[in-house]
Amino acid sequence: MTKTTVREQYDRMAAKYDRRWNSYITNTLSILQTWAQISSQDKVLDIGCGTGEFERLVLTQQPTQEIMGVDISEKMLAIARQKLHTYPNVSFHTAPASALPFADRSFDVVVSASYTALTNC
């Protein structure tokens, strides 16, 4: 599957994504948050952040957490930006996981709901 195909699929489902996958999202992201053990001082990168639900979950407990989300779907990111526009410490960027626009060791914690990466990336 090409990046364009994946992007188009997620763009099409963006508006209904949170409702359709609510139970899965809630359970998966809660487990991810517990596993990642993010401290309030950590700079976090969420790869494949979709509609920003992981960011929302983290910010309900740590409203000053510095966190960046990346996703291939601009429509998913538009929803994430709308949800979390009141948090100046959160930003979202369009990029595929295979070509992240960040220097090495830019983050203390890197996560993805699809797989969980390592710290000090």
From TrEMBL:
SUPFAM superfamilies: S-adenosyl-L-methionine-dependent methyltransferases. It comes from the Bacteria. Residues 44-113 form the Methyltransferase domain. InterPro entries: Methyltransf_25, SAM-dependent_MTases_sf. This is Methyltransferase domain-containing protein. It comes from Chroococcidiopsis cubana SAG 39.79.
